[in-house]
Amino acid sequence: MSTPAYWILRYEQRILTLPADVTGPLLPFGHAADFGLADEGLAAGQFDGHPCRTADIATLPAHLALEATPLRALFPQAGDEVFALAGRAVQLLDWQQQHRYCGRCGTPNTMKHGEWAMQCPSCGLLAYPRVSPAIMVLVRSGKRLLLARSPHFKPGVFSALAGFVEPGETLEQCAAREVREEVGIEITQLRYFGSQPWPFPNSLMVAFLAEHAGGEIKPDPAEIEAAGWFAADALPLLPDPVSISRRLIEAALAGH
């Protein structure tokens, strides 16, 4: 019999958890068959000393009281560890769905034992989970922070500048290019702050602090709705606490 595990089950693009008023972990625990699954799904890591597995589920188990929560809304009730596991799980499930066939010869892929890899049994091509590196830059000018608003943000929310790394580009080159393209200024004293896997859909955010080196803010209307310099006592709405952008802004405000 298989080893029982904690499960990150995705139902209609939402994560199934135990009710919020339940004492203990919110992730359901048991064997694959307990949830009507025909196989063991994908390994997603460890949680609370047990394996954690993930699978898409087509039908809600009638005998279990499970709640379906959008991934973005999971953090406030589940915390950092569960949110990170769920983010990994969603990326793995998407990767498995999107690489069912070999991109070179069209043969159905199989899972390679011992690692997250889909392998073509015909030509041997390997497909690994996609990770898209993206930079984030918070620019300072004295005690003011450059914050900008993208059209896809929640109403009123401003954040640091961000963009994807292009082929053949270093993180440092990407940071300078994105700032220049999005708001028309130059930066200096670029300093690494931290990183965060971000499953919307498959990014690795790499965050930096930088100083303003010159130029006036001229937002690119295709990317930025509004941008400006903000003092600590006159900040707009900020991103959710779960995001590295919020931690980056708070660190800058604290003088780091």
UniProtKB/TrEMBL annotation:
Give the source's domain of life in one word.
Bacteria
Indicate whether Nucleotidyltransferase appears among the record's keywords. Answer: no
In the record, biological process GO terms are:
NAD+ catabolic process; NADP+ catabolic process
**Main EC class of this protein?**
hydrolase
Q: Which NCBIfam families match?
A: PRK00241.1 (NF001299)
InterPro entries the UniProt entry points to: NAD-cap_RNA_hydrolase_NudC, NADH_PPase-like_N, NudC-like_C, Nudix_hydrolase, NUDIX_hydrolase-like_dom_sf, NUDIX_hydrolase_CS, NUDIX_hydrolase_dom, Znr_NADH_PPase
Keywords, in A-Z order: Hydrolase, Magnesium, Metal-binding, NAD
Write the protein's name.
NAD(+) diphosphatase
Family, similarity comment: Belongs to the Nudix hydrolase family. NudC subfamily.
Domain Nudix hydrolase as annotated: residue spans: 128-254
UniProt KW NAD keyword: yes
List the catalytic activities from the record: a 5'-end NAD(+)-phospho-ribonucleoside in mRNA + H2O = a 5'-end phospho-adenosine-phospho-ribonucleoside in mRNA + beta-nicotinamide D-ribonucleotide + 2 H(+)
| GO molecular function terms noted in the UniProt entry | metal ion binding; NADH pyrophosphatase activity
- Matches recorded under Gene3D superfamilies: 3.90.79.20, Nucleoside Triphosphate Pyrophosphohydrolase
Cofactor(s) named in the record: Zn(2+); Mg(2+)
- Organism, scientific name: Parazoarcus communis SWub3 = DSM 12120
GO cellular component annotations, sorted alphabetically? cytosol
- Per the UniProt entry, the Enzyme Commission number(s) are 3.6.1.22
